[in-house]
Design brief:
- This protein is of the alpha+beta class and 124 residues long.
- The chain has one domain.
- Helix content is 36%, strand content 31%.
- Strands 1, 2, 3, 4 and 5 form a five-stranded mixed sheet that branches.
- This is Type VI secretion system baseplate subunit TssF.
- InterPro entries: T6SS_TssF.
Length: 124
């Protein structure tokens, strides 16, 4: 079992490595491995800052991350959106239960962005 440190996931290179580790198709399919690597290489930056929000009147500190992705290796923007949706859920799994994480994904070519709502942490 992997013991992932939440804060280490908030570094672009570390996040790319974790995603690559979960890519089981790449082990047996070289073409899939190349496509996956191209998409990982499209992740340009991951910037994270602390933020405070009120949840039912109680102030809670969490983290807001902005993931900047170049669209070239993606078939369509829907693929970029899907990656963001999965990562939004994944990162919340490692945030502490007394915290939250919110993700924004930015298309570095068009500057279009998608923002997911705050997800409360799931990690004890």
């Amino acid at each position: 079992a992997m013991n992932l440190n939440y804060l280490s996931l908030l570094d672009a290179d570390a996040l790319k490595q974790v995603i690559a580790n979960f890519d089981r198709h790449a082990i047996h399919h070289p073409q899939m491995a190349r496509l996956s690597q191209q998409k990982l290489d499209a992740i340009e930056r991951l910037e994270t800052t602390p933020v405070d929000r009120l949840f039912t009147g109680i102030p809670v500190r969490g983290l807001a991350s902005t993931l900047s992705i170049h669209p070239e290796p993606f078939v369509c923007e829907g693929e970029m959106y899907l990656l963001g949706a999965v990562l939004s859920h994944f990162l919340s799994l490692y945030a502490s239960v007394n915290s939250f994480h919110m993700l924004t994904v930015v298309n570095t070519e068009s500057q279009e962005s998608w923002k997911w709502a705050e997800r409360t942490g799931q990690h004890p």
